Amino acid sequence: MDTTSPATSEEGQALAVAAEALYLVNLMIVPGVGFIGIVWLWFTKRKDATALARCHLDQVFFASLWAGFLLIIANAAIIFLGGYQSANTWVVAILYFTTCHTTLIFFGAIGLARALAGKPYRFPLVGRPCDI
């Protein structure tokens, strides 16, 4: 039997939706600002959040860290392959955006849909197990 009140459940779902929306904002609209919002939510709301909200907060926090790591790897590859003036820059940039970045956005859209439905979501490969 579910012991959470409807208000608590709705607040948890709203927090899950906010986290997933900030993840997409970070990837597509305002990089950095969205990440600051995710970090703030994770550090201030995670301990008191419902299991659903905690699941989504964990997913977007760690997926954002992975996204940053992949961006660093892409930049390192560009520098290693001849710097930003090299023709190889476009190869690495296009490969990064068509594989890594697009995949992260796709998973974020699925996560947002699941949060809107009030269901947990675990990012493939980089997601942490949820306690739901």
TrEMBL record:
One Pfam short name: MamF_MmsF
Keyword ATP-binding in record: no
TM ranges: 21-43, 63-84, 90-113
Keyword Transmembrane assigned: yes
InterPro entries: MamF_MmsF (IPR019109)
Compartments in which it is found: Membrane
Entry keywords, A to Z: Membrane, Transmembrane, Transmembrane helix
Membrane topology: Multi-pass membrane protein
Protein name per UniProt: Cytochrome C oxidase subunit III
